[in-house]
Amino acid sequence: MRAPGPTWVILNPAAGQGRAERAWPDLAPRLRALGVAFTQAVTCGPGDATALAREATAGGAGRIIVAGGDGTLNEVINGCVQAGAAGGPLPTLALLPIGTGADFARRLGITSPASALRALQRGRPRAIDLGRVAYRDEAGREAERAFINVADFGLGPDASAALARGPRRLGQGAYLVAALRAIADYRQALVRLTVDDHPFYAGASGILAVGNSPYFGGGMAIAPKARPDDGLLDVVVLGAADRRTLAGTLLPRVYAGTHLRHPAVHFARGSTVTIEADPPLPLEVDGEIVGTTPARFALHPRQIPVLRPDDGK
Question: What b-and-e string marks burial along 162-201, b requiring 16 or more CB atoms within 10 Å of the CB?
Answer without folding.
Answer: bbeeeebeeeeebbbbbbebbbeebebbebbbbbeeeebb
